[in-house]
Amino acid sequence: MIQNNPATSRRHPKKGKVIILVAPSGAGKTTLARRLLNDFPNLKFSVSATTRPPRSHEIDGRDYHFLSSEQFDEAVANNEFLEWEEFYGGKRYGTLFSEVENELKKGYFVLFDIEVKGALNVKARYGDDALSVFIKPPSDKVLVERLRNRGTETDESLQLRLDRARMELSFADRFDNVIINDDLEHCYRELQRLVASFMN
């Protein structure tokens, strides 16, 4: 099921545009983003900056831009971020404006997989040149099941994620489109159609 508020777009932009994908944990956002990147060659992923240390398989500049707390503070002071936010444990994540603009100037569309507040900031910045899509789980019960089935959550972390998810869901009506992910394949087809229409 899709609730649609179509965004306007120019037919042959010289500069790329922005596609913003938002969902609470467990709603399938990462899987959907990967499929979009695979199916649309002119779509580039927005690589976030973070103060958390890299994991063993992660590469600076590909997975994240890994910054020290001091570097992050400096970037904030210089207004270099489109958006940034602090999460559990004091780790910060943000989107560097220069990184996004470099891709847009080349004519690429830039895909954001970010949190609600950051997404609204990016949408406000780019206006009609941004398509924002909120992916909703069909219900709280399904969301809890999906998070439990990951096998990575303690009772405490599960509750934190659920509390955050409920906060995020309260913002859903501020996005251009809302897709309910009750079936992953159906959800992806709806998302794929929206993205293709926006790109054309």
What would you say about this model in short?
This protein is 41% helix and 21% strand. The protein is an alpha/beta fold and 200 residues long.
Please outline the helices and strands.
Elements: E1 2-4, E2 18-22, H1 29-39, E3 43-45, E4 49-50, E5 65-66, H2 69-77, E6 81-86, E7 92-96, H3 97-105, E8 109-113, H4 116-126, E9 130-136, H5 140-150, H6 155-169, E10 177-180, H7 184-199
Parallel strand pairs: 2-8, 2-9, 3-8, 4-5, 9-10
Antiparallel strand pairs: 1-10, 4-7, 6-7
What's the story with the biggest beta sheet?
6 strands, mixed
CATH architecture: 3-Layer(aba) Sandwich
Order of helices and strands: EEHEEEHEEHEHEHHEH
What's the assembly state of these chains? single chain
Counting DSSP E segments of at least 2 residues, the number of strands comes to: 10
Relative strand content: 15-25%
Number of helices: 7
How are the strands of the biggest sheet laid out side by side? 1-10-9-2-8-3
Would you state the CATH class? Alpha Beta
Distance between the termini: 23 Å
C-alpha geometry: globular
Q: What's the alpha carbon Rg, rounded to whole Å?
A: 17 Å
Q: Helix- and strand-based class?
A: alpha/beta
State the CATH superfamily name: P-loop containing nucleotide triphosphate hydrolases
Q: What level of helicity do the residues show?
A: 40-55%
Average the pLDDT over all residues and give the rounded result: 89
Low-confidence stretches: 6-10
Please, how many domains? 1
